[in-house]
Structure formats: structure tokens, C-alpha cells
Amino acid sequence: MGELKKRVVASLCIAPVIASAFYFLPAKWFFVLLMLVSIIALLELITMSGVRERYLLLLLAILCIIPLYYKSFFVYTGCLLFAPFIFMGYKILRGESKKEGINEDILKGIYVIFLCEIFVIIPLYYLSLLKETGCSLPFILLLTMWASDTCAYLFGKRFGKRKLVPYISPKKTYEGLLGAMAGSTVVIVLSGKVLGMGILETVIVGATIGILAQMGDILESAGKRVCATKDSSRLIPGHGGILDRMDSFIFTAPFLYHYLAGVKI
Is 150:156 a contact under the CB 8 Å cutoff? Predict the structure, then answer.
């Protein structure tokens, strides 16, 4: 079975389940689902990085999730700083401070911890905040991401000529970016009544989300180039891993939440 066929079959099987979870799950269980998803994504990211102590890093990252459940950003910030301290202490106590390359190992591990906390856990946490703000908001954002990705692919394939970021993601084009903006704008415009926005406002917000979704994708692609890997894992046939599917939320979920909470209210 070809990659495209695998991708279509996997989408038809998984998409209804994901859409139902985003729409129907109450806030508490939606948070639990997102945190389970984040654990898989964290493991993918840590494995991609090649850090030897991957289960220690995973444990430190998971422990940082607990304060978020209780909505304590103050404690979360403390955990964010404490996790590198634990990792560095572990390396020193194991006597690795006398080994060559220890400085790079420590900084690489700390770098991965911050990537996990900032670009995996926080975006998914913002999705849970959107759920609390409005039950259908994560579902709308999910549809927006799907429309953005689909239109980016179709526009890029049909009209794509000018490379957007050739050394990071060679297939991305400016035409594809316009497609991403168009796809996300259509969904946001159609959801304008639910979001409480006028036409002009939905066009601006929709286009912005399209750009941010592509930026999240480019960020993850840059990480994969550094790690010399094509996909974060092979968990989803034709799609790659969880990280490959959630990169569009990295900037869009925080943006939509803060826009609705800070500008609309």
C-alpha cells in the first residue's frame, strides 16, 4: 500500500474518533486525554533527540504536568527550573563530570527538557483552556487545522513554485502558505457566530491562524532536520507520529485562547 493510500485510510479511521473526542469530551476528561497524548509526544521528541537518559527526561517532563492540572503556573515555572537541576545533578552524581563531552550532554538534555515543556505540554494545555472557555472551541480549531493542512497541500501541489523555506521543509511554498491561510479562514468565517466575531475579524484571525499553523509545522521540521529523521515516529501509518500531527497547535492554540480571553472578553 502506497504512502498516500495509507494516509487516507488512517485519516478515515482516526479522524472521526479524534473529532468526537474534541467535541464531546467534558473539560476534565479532555485534559486527561491531552496529557496522555502529550506523554507519547514527549517520548517521541526525547527519542528523536538521542539523549541517553530518555526515561529520566520523560519522568521530569511528566511531573511538570501536575501543577498545570491544578492551574498553578507559579509551581509549573518552579518545576521548569527544577527539572534541569535534577538532570544535571543526576549526571554529576553518576560520575559523568569526569567524562569527555559532559558539557554537551548536560546542555543537550536541558535543551530537550525546555523543548518538551514549552512546545509540547504548553500548547496542549492551552487546548484544555480553550475547552473550558467554550466546549466547541477545540473542535473548531481542529477543523481549522485540518482545512489549513489540506488546502496548503492542494495549493502547493497545484500552484507551488516559489520555495518558502527550502533548507527546512523543501516542499513548502508561498502558494501553499496562501492555501493554508485560505483554508483556516474559511473555517473561522463559518464559525464566526460561535466565536462571536464579525466577518472582517474572522478573516484576520483565520489568516493569522493559517500562518501560525505553518510556523509550527516549520519549527517541527527544523527539529527533525537537526535530528536527521523524517517523522517523529511511525505510530500513525502515512502520517508519522503524534508530534507530526500536533505541530500545527504549537502557536495556534495559545494564540486563539489569548485572543478570545484577552481581546474578546
Answer: no
